Amino acid sequence: MGRKPCCSKEGLNRGAWSAIEDQILIDYIKTNGEGKWGNIPKKAGLKRCGKSCRLRWLNYLRPDIKRGNISQEEEDLIIRLHKLLGNRWSLIAGRIPGRTDNEIKNYWNSTLGKKVKAEQAKQSKDELEKGKIQPLAETPQSTALRTKASKCSTCLVTQEAYKAEIINADLVHEARLESPKSGGTVLSTTSEEAHSVNSALEFDIGELLASDISESEFWNYCQVNKNSMEEGESSGVARNMWLSSDQHLQFSEEMLTDWIRDDI
DNA sequence: AACTCGGTCAACCGCCCAAAA
DNA sequence: ATTTTGGGCGGTTGACCGAGT
User: Nearest nucleotide by C1' from A1 CA?
Assistant: First the structure.
């Protein structure tokens, strides 16, 4: 039963790839194409496991990989996408041509993450000094949303789950709502409880990310959601939507008026 | 010159899940 | 229906390098 193992790990090379190994892999893929990584070591005569071949090709040898420093535009995009998607490096990389998930992850961990953190700290400090904002712990909004996203390429997000995420404090683990127009995701969640909620209306995040839905479609979703709210809940949802969309969505005044009447 | 330290990045690890058998 | 694997992912490691002392 099951599949045969792709390769034995014994007797395989590890560590840095040599130029000769690189050339063997390039030649093989030029002739046979990508995929079937498990077969490559045997067929190409490489003493590497299939996983290692795949990684080497995708992160280094692929012809469409962009070399050189990350530009300012790319950096801005990475920051925006990270804000939207969290540590979902492959998704971020998918939207930055020529850059690999590994490269972006490394860049974030070594440079960008610290930079963003420092800027945020400075911004908070400035605003605090100007009296624009209350200290975080005292701000009622600070508990509204946590925006850490996690791996959810296959997770299903339900309307009910979304409600649960936003409204029920016990279930608010991670939720986000962003504009597809801004190049981000619509909604993601990792709440186990929320996942277990049944609903007829399900959204596959992977599909949504790939489908590039329009803002009006997105807004329709919000309207449907809103209409299913109990009295008194919609304002809370609206607030959270507003908070989460503040920097990314360009909702019109009319759109928002109905939602944020009392709560902000 | 020798050493330490911190940053960078390629490569590996371990997990998850869809697909194959 | 069940077991097993391959592929894909994010997290982590460790080699390497340059700056500072």
Answer: B21
| CA separation for the pair A16, A19 (Å, rounded) | 10
Q: How many domains does chain A have?
A: 2
Between A192 and A95, where is the model more confident? A95
User: By the 8 A CB rule, do A208 and A183 touch?
Assistant: no
* C-alpha dihedral (A192, A203, A229, A221), degrees to nearest 10: 150
**Minimum-distance nucleotide, CA of A93 to C1':** C9
Phi and psi, residue A127, nearest 5°: -65, -35
Global pTM value: 0.57
Span A132-175, pLDDT tens digits: 655 443 222 222 222 222 223 223 333 333 333 332 222 222 33
Indicate if CB(A50) is under 7 A from strand C: yes
As given in the structure block, the two tokens for residue A151 are 């791996």
Q: Which residue has the higher pLDDT, A113 or A4?
A: A113
What pLDDT shows up at residue A110? 86
Which residue places its CA closest to the C1' of nucleotide C13? Answer: A15
Same domain as A53, residue A74:
no
Do A26 and A56 sit in the same domain of this protein?
yes
Domain membership of residue A83 (yes or no) is yes
Residues A81 and A38 in one domain: no
Range of the structural domain that residue A40 is part of: 12-63
Domain boundary pick from A125, A144, A161? A125
Asked whether the beta carbons of A173 and A149 are under 8 A apart, the reply is no
Residue A26 covered by a domain: yes
Top-confidence residue, A64 or A229: A64
